[in-house]
Design a protein that fits this description.
Elements (H helix, E strand, L loop, with lengths): L4 H9 L7 E7 L10 E6 L2 E8 L3 E7 L7 E4 L10 E6 L2 E7 L5 E6 L7 E4 L10 E6 L2 E7 L5 E6 L7 E4 L12 E6 L2 E7 L6 E6 L7 E4 L11 E6 L2 E7 L5 E6 L7 E4 L10 E6 L2 E8 L3 E7 L7 E4 L11 E6 L2 E8 L3 E7 L6 E5 L10 E6 L2 E7 L5 E6 L7 E2 L23 E3 L2 E6 L7 E7 L12 E4 L6 E16 L5 E15 L6 E9 L2 E9 L1
Length: 539
Amino acid sequence: MKKSIILILTFFCAISLADAQEFQMVKDIHLTGNSSPLFFTAYNGKFYFEANSENDGKELWVSDGSESGTQLVKDINSLGNSNLGGLTVYENKLYFVATDGVNGHELWTSDGTEAGTQMVKDINPSGDSSPNYFTVYNGKLYFEANDDLHGRELWVSDGTEAGTQMLKDINGNPGEGAGAGFLTVFDGKLYFSAYGDVANGRELWVTDGTEAGTQMLKDIRPGYGSSVAKYFTPYNGKLYFAADNGSDGDELWVTDGTETGTQMVKNINTIEGSNPNGFIIMNDKLYFSASTSDHGIELWVTDGSESGTQMVKDIYPLHGNGSPRDYVVFNNQLYFTAYDNSNGSELWVSDGTEAGTMMLKNIHPTADSFPGFFTVYDEKLYFTADDGSNGIEFWVTDGTEAGTQKIAPEIAPGSEPTNSGPMRRAYQLFEYQNSLYFNANFTNDGLELWKFTSENMNVQDFISTSIHLYPNPVKNEFYISSDQMIDQVLIYDVAGKLIFQKEFNQKEVKINSTPFEKGVYVVKIRSHKAWKTLKLIKN
């Protein structure tokens, strides 16, 4: 028998933390193998994802968190896998790339029903248009796609077939394509990286949504070379990114949206380029990884000035690479994975100072624990890691060494080899209605959809808490008031991208919404050990 009631009940009871918590397999989607659910995306009160079943292959699924409410939306490709990806919410519908086995990988949409799941347009009738980099801007959906005539160019859609068009043939050479990437909304315009032509290479571009208003902002690397501008991150009223001007290597750059205001912030590595990446904002500063010839890849910080751009700490002293990555902000501190010269890849924390940057816990004393997929939930930080016993499993920290513990249930005998772990492919920890969802194999059922619920995340906590958001719709600023202390506010755009994060300790907060684009936003408010989710409309 594949399932064991006694075994599953044992799992629900085998919790390593004192607080009551629960692990539950939502549904065994693939009865004879791995369903491997991925790309979890919230939409219209439910969440959607790709999953593999023995009868339908990899297709679009939906769940309300219950077994009966976890269902196939549509068998898009009845002959095989639809291979969907890029799930993005736009104009109260879900957009993504998929193939029906006849038309190649094209732009699709779904309203959550089988009948309402349809291809928007066959952009490339002779093959795959493979749209990606979906970004909502100024009331439309922008993406990169290949129509086989122009190569990969910037496209735009209003959700209709007729309204899905190439915005501009940026690279006029037939079939070459601009390869538009890293689409980022900033200050009322859409910025991206594109290959204009041989004379300019891949540079920083900007558009206002019109063909005429789609222009190269600056030829950062003049001539035939490419600056390969990338990793665009809005910070403190400007846009920061990495680029190579041809003489200093890949370095930290900034733009205010003008050609003259597009400048290198600092030549961090004067030998070969510092390759800055992993940008994240904490306490009004911008943190990132960068490399120098003296210290290797380490944690850096900037306030936007040359003098204020400094290495935080040489985690792996001298020429070694600390290789910090997977940054997340939790309780006004920065958590990440890093190497030092004695402990391997472990969990680190920083308050932004050299003295306050340290390894939180040596999870795997004799090797690497490889912590990753950090997710803030229930006033704690959850992640996956390997302590050397059962491979990659479920962990939590409250920010202390003692409070960093493995919380996964015991693994069913034979369910996973010890060198991989029950959460070896938990590429996403996804919060939905006060639970965390992920794929795992704690039993002999294969990689399936599981959820974890902390006792503290109880919707009843809000019965005695009155929270108001006003005005709504909003123009320039709005307020959130509560009869309990507001601890934290998170704001997401319709694509699920976190655009605002701040911690508070007051009953009323004011938030400036001027930088937000017009549209719908999700506001998550933490108060009194629980979360409240509200919708915000920006006019």
